[in-house]
Design brief:
By secondary structure, the protein is an all-alpha fold. It has one domain: Cytochrome Bc1 Complex, Chain D, domain 2 (Orthogonal Bundle), CATH 1.10.760. It starts with a helix and ends in a 6-residue tail after the last helix. 26% of the residues are buried.
Length: 167
C-alpha cells in the first residue's frame, strides 16, 4: 500500500473519530445536548428531581428555588450560611456539574475543602442515591434561562478537559 493511500485512510479515520467525538459527546456531553452529568432535557429525570427537590430541598432553598434570605452571601444570626437560591439569581450555575454533585453528596466543607465554613446544608450521601442527586440537580438546571444553561454547558466541557491536579 502506498504512503499516499495510508495517509488518506489515516486522515479519514481521524475525521470519523472527531465526528463521533463531537456527535456522541466530548467530556460528558449528554445526548440531550447538555454538557456534564445533569440531564435537564430528560423529562423523567427532571420529574423525579422535582419530586425529590420538593421533599428534600425546598424547605431551605424555597419552593421556587429562591433561597432562604435576600442576603444569602452573609452568615445568619447563628453563624451559619443561609441556603442560597438555585435560580438564575444565585451562584449555583457558576459551578460545574461535578462540583455541585460533590457538594450535595459530601457537603460543601468536604467537597470544597472549606474548614471554617459553617452551613446547615445536610450531606446527602446515604440519603439520596447518585442518580437521585443528579435528578435533583437536573431539575434545578432545567429551570435556568437558556443562555445560563448554555454557559454552564461550556463550563462543564472546559472543566472536564482540565487535568484534575489543576482544578
Amino acid at each position: 500500500m502506498s504512503m499516499k493511500r495510508l495517509l488518506t485512510i489515516g486522515l479519514a479515520g481521524l475525521a470519523l473519530l472527531a465526528t463521533a467525538y463531537l456527535t456522541l459527546g466530548r467530556a460528558g456531553i449528554q445526548e440531550t445536548g447538555s454538557a456534564g452529568l445533569f440531564m435537564p432535557d430528560d423529562e423523567e429525570t427532571v420529574a423525579l428531581g422535582r419530586e425529590l427537590y420538593a421533599s428534600n430541598c425546598a424547605a431551605c432553598h424555597g419552593d421556587n428555588l429562591e433561597g432562604q434570605v435576600a442576603d444569602w452571601r452573609l452568615p445568619g444570626p447563628e453563624g451559619l450560611m443561609p441556603a442560597p437560591p438555585h435560580d438564575e439569581t444565585g451562584h449555583t450555575w457558576h459551578h460545574p456539574d461535578q462540583v455541585l454533585f460533590e457538594i450535595t453528596k459530601f457537603g460543601i466543607v468536604a467537597a470544597a475543602n472549606l474548614k471554617d465554613y459553617r452551613t446547615a446544608m445536610p450531606i446527602y450521601e446515604g440519603v439520596l442515591s447518585d442518580e437521585e442527586i443528579i435528578a435533583v440537580l437536573s431539575f434545578i438546571k432545567g429551570t435556568w434561562p437558556e443562555e445560563i444553561r448554555a454557559g454552564h454547558d461550556e463550563m462543564n466541557a472546559r472543566y472536564a478537559l482540565e487535568p484534575p491536579e489543576t482544578r
